[in-house]
Write a structure and sequence with these properties.
The chain is an alpha/beta fold. It has a single domain (3-309), classed as Aldolase class I (TIM Barrel), CATH 3.20.20.70. It has 10 helices and 13 strands. It has helices at residues 25-33, 46-60, 66-89, 106-118, 138-155, 171-180, 216-229, 244-252, 262-267, 270-285; strands at 3-5, 8-10, 14-16, 38-40, 44-45, 95-101, 122-127, 160-164, 185-188, 195-198, 203-206, 234-237, 257-260. The strands form 3 sheets. Strands 3-4-6-7-8-9-12-13 form an 8-stranded parallel β-barrel, surrounded by 8 helices. It has a two-stranded antiparallel sheet with strand order 1-2. The longest helix has 24 residues, at 66-89. The termini are far apart. The relative contact order is 0.13.
Length: 322
Amino acid sequence: MKTEYLGLELSSPVVVSSSPYTSNKTHIEECVRHGAGAVVLKSIFEEQIYRQAASLDKMEGYGDAGEYLERYLGDAYKAELLQLVKDAAALGVPVIGSINCIGTGEAWIDYATSMEAAGASALELNIFVLPTDRHASAAQIEQHYADIVRKVASAVKIPVSVKLPMRLTNVLSTCDTLLARGAKGVVLYNRFFEPDIDIEKMTLQPADPFSEPSELRNVLRSTALCSHVLPQLDVAVSTGVHDGAAAVKALLCGAKAVQICTAIHKHGYEVIGQIGRFVDEWAARHGFDTLESFRGRMDYGSSQGEFFQRVQYMKYFPHDVE
């Protein structure tokens, strides 16, 4: 079932998110073969380039080589990325370039314009500022997001979306600001690296990186709100979509697409087509001919929209505890 996301026509609402499954041509070919409507390429990470440069600089013992190494590694990384954009674009599905923006945005204008020239159909900006400074206000942090979006969106002609963090004071206000700065869509939500602790060794270690189906619930609320209040902004749901039923829920709340990664890890590439077919079969069973005929039927503006305003339990359990 076709959908339109960021002004792009997708053969399926199922998009493979920025992940190892979109990191090389072979993996992307598998995604396309199994029915992906689009692919979001694995992100460029600024800190990766800096870390590699610092490591080589230290090993070589040349204290003034850091800037050269950063530039050299950055150029090599960029060349590899642009070749991947070209290879992916040749496969016949929309290719969305992903940029992990942790700086002011200046360094990423070149990447953005280069990916556009290489054949990317759209860009997805992955932005997050970890608030470690107690003097930095929420307004300052969100202004940082807005500045990056404005700079990148004004430098390219292709649509720009923003992958947002879940921890926002007012997601509607943030999305409204990003829309005004040139964003055409948002992805709800980014799932970040999380630390865990080995209590026996007393060492930090990575937590499980994969999402759980239950994480979809919070995303549905935000999607229902954003899609109704800001209809000019396309929404893609990216956390908690593990099967076809979850995809239908996201679409009913107003999403134009869903992004998956963990589902592929757990069930293989076949799950891409399985989710797409479930959406088609569900729509046919309920008498819908197109995705647009049911998209948003259960958003904040629907007859049941007030349900999304409830945030406190009136009862702790469905039945009284005896």
